[in-house]
Amino acid sequence: MQQDFSKRISIVVNKELPIWQAMNAVAHISAYFGYKLDTNFGTGEYFVTKDGINLPRNTQYPIIVFAATEAEIYGFANKARQVDVKSMFFIKEMIETSNDDEIGNLVGQENEESVTYLGAGVFGENAIVKGLTNGFKLWS
């Protein structure tokens, strides 16, 4: 399959999080997009070394990680809902419990403005995604 350079994945993570929480947010958001994009995610099965070892290919799309404040992530999430992108939001409850029923119950007791976003990711056309992430600094 030919690489598609017209789209990208961008993830914005709360820069105040402990590293393990930030990496957890990035991992879950990336995994979500990998699952949703299914066969469009990669360009094939393997790269093969000279001695015949298969090395799995990675995604065909760039994945860019940005740092932001909690308030900036909340604004990013709201803007992402208004444009044509796929979105995934990683919230505090997803760190506090791994039980989806518990997460659903906890989130169901809050208004959206009370939800704590640890990270948010989008996948879509380069121009749209760049517009959403303009002004954020790369994670470092």
Largest sheet: 5 strands, mixed
- Give me the secondary-structure category: alpha+beta
Uncertain stretches of 5 or more adjacent residues: none
Q: Number of folding domains? A: 1
What global shape is seen? globular
Second CATH tier, the architecture: 3-Layer(aba) Sandwich
- Strand numbers in spatial order across the main sheet: 5-6-1-4-7
CATH level 3 topology: Bit1
CATH top level class name: Alpha Beta
CATH superfamily: Bit1
Number of helical stretches of at least 4 residues:
5
Structure report:
The protein has 140 residues and is an alpha+beta fold. It has one domain (7-138): Bit1 (3-Layer(aba) Sandwich). Helix content is 36%, strand content 26%. The protein is built from five helices and seven strands. The strands form two sheets. It has a five-stranded mixed beta sheet with strand order 5-6-1-4-7, with helices on both faces. Strand 2 (46-48) and strand 3 form a beta hairpin. The mean pLDDT is 93.
At a glance:
36% of the residues lie in helices and 26% in strands. The protein has 140 residues and is of the alpha+beta class.
